[in-house]
Amino acid sequence: MITTTLPAKKSLKALAAAAALICFCGINATKAQSGPETENGRYALSAVNDGVLRLDTRTGVVSTCSNAGTGWACYAVPDERAALDAEIGRLQSDNEKLKAQLALREPTVPGKIDEPLPKQDSLKPGGPKVADGERKIEIPLPSDRDMERVMSFLEQAWRRLVDIANRMQKDVTGKI
What we know:
Elements: H1 2-32, H2 36-39, E1 43-48, E2 51-56, E3 62-67, E4 72-76, H3 80-105, H4 144-173
């Protein structure tokens, strides 16, 4: 019996040592991954002409730091992204308000259908058929009297143009 209990005590001690080693390694691995606070500190500094740029590695805020004679002072740099995000948010809320107003006015536009109309070529002989009850658009051809009026107008305009050209040619040649 004595021989069976000794190995059990040794294996128990070995098991406890292994568990402690695993816990210790796990804690150190967690500390190694904790972030910049344990590596280089919370802030990353970069020298510029009139002072230092400071980056907060936790929040991402950038500040300019300078010595103004009374001591060092840091001021946050205006964030363009924050201004853009604010404007985008404002426009999205305006858009939602306008959509709600349109929905209250009239739920649907009369005569509008949800499906797009099929594309058809109106120049093909098998163009769209017009039902008997639908309205037809007819364009009347000009009458003979209308054609005579257009022809006389064009003839008069042509004669005036030729007369103007002849006068200009006489003016250029010096025979006035």
